[in-house]
Amino acid sequence: MALDLNAGEYKIFRDAFKKFIQSEIAPHYEDWEKEGLVPRPVWEKAGDNGFLCPWVSEEYGGAGAGFEYSVIITEELSRAGTHVFFPLHSDIVVPYIASYGTPEQKQRWLPGCVSGRIITAIAMTEPDAGSDLAAIRTTALPNGDHYVLNGTKTFISCGINAGLVLVACKTDPRANPPYKGISLLVVEHGTPGFSRGKKLDKMGLRSQDTVELVFDDCRVPAENLLGEEGRGFIYLMEKLQQERLICAVMGQGLAERMLKYTVEYCRSRNIFGKPVASFQHNAFKLAELATEVELGRAFLNSLLEKHLAGERAVKEVSMAKWWITEMANRVAYHCLQLHGGYGYSGEYPICRDYRDVRIFNIFAGTTEVMKAIIAREIGL
């Protein structure tokens, strides 16, 4: 039987989260866009209501629910056009701690991640190393019972709010091949030598605190090493399937949102005495967009079932990540065009959605990187 996230307990959870968005997020989102920051109390309210890391086991304060509930949260945030980065925290960063952390590390950090008292970020990208993770220059050299961390990371989402930052670094800069020297360190707020730059001025997703992070002789306790030394690159690769799947869910949800309100707009907006939707070209364009959105949903649902079953779906997820996010960008382009001049006005949601969606086919691996992975997976 196909997975139905709109029935039974899933529907109850979805409805509850929709109400949370309507009461705690949507009324304030424009202000957060101007401020460039989502206030920490919102994260704590989300945690109090069970909307952060719902999959974490009860032992560490979670509900022990399935990844399906994370998908529902991601979908509804995108469908509301409110891109608070709960999914980055819950489904991209925290799973590293749950999978590779020691029992002591899990006990120390997971309860705070579930409650929202701890917000997390992941620091991979550097000014000279984006998609090429093996080329990172940040080093963490052993020194007694500490690592001395030096380097700069950029485009770090949740970088201001984060109380824990998972840092990809080289504990063995001379390793050959280079990726074998990469490890993961957890850097806590207040660690000497750790500082944050100013918030970056971005095209879209303006409410998200995206910054540069600087590590200058930052002394990180050796006990904050996550997993084994030299296996960081492998850990990153193991978690990228879920990260990219989350990105596809975001793209799909936003595409569905844009199509829905654009159809409504074209039905009600008149030009030359007739509804915009009554012109054949416009009706055909909306039919094309509706078809692409439906195809994206069918493909995504099939991949969610595979991922939930624990199957390796690197090829298919890479396909979905590039195709769905590119599709969402096409939907944004044509929906704005159908709005005419009003689409260029901030009074209409397509204006912000058009800006926000542009990053979707860049972060978590660009479209070009996804195609390179697919080519490798099919034996090229």
How would you explain this protein's 3D organization?
Pfam families: Acyl-CoA_dh_1, Acyl-CoA_dh_M, Acyl-CoA_dh_N. Belongs to the acyl-CoA dehydrogenase family. The structure is a single chain. The chain folds into 3 domains: 8-118, Acyl-CoA dehydrogenase/oxidase, N-terminal domain (Butyryl-Coa Dehydrogenase, subunit A, domain 1, Orthogonal Bundle); 121-229, Butyryl-CoA Dehydrogenase, subunit A, domain 2 (Beta Barrel), CATH 2.40.110; 234-377, Butyryl-CoA Dehydrogenase, subunit A, domain 3, CATH 1.20.140.10. The chain contains 11 helices and 10 strands. It has helices at 8-25, 29-35, 40-48, 67-79, 86-100, 103-115, 232-268, 280-308, 314-339, 349-357, 367-377; strands spanning 120-123, 139-143, 146-157, 164-170, 182-188, 194-199, 210-221, 225-226, 270-271, 274-275. Strands 1-4-5-8 form a 4-stranded mixed sheet, with helices on one face. Helix 4 (67-79) runs antiparallel to helix 5 (86-100).
Describe this structure in a few short sentences.
The chain folds into 3 domains: 111 residues, Acyl-CoA dehydrogenase/oxidase, N-terminal domain (Butyryl-Coa Dehydrogenase, subunit A, domain 1, Orthogonal Bundle); 109 residues, Butyryl-CoA Dehydrogenase, subunit A, domain 2 (Beta Barrel); 144 residues, Up-down Bundle (Butyryl-CoA Dehydrogenase, subunit A, domain 3), CATH 1.20.140.10.
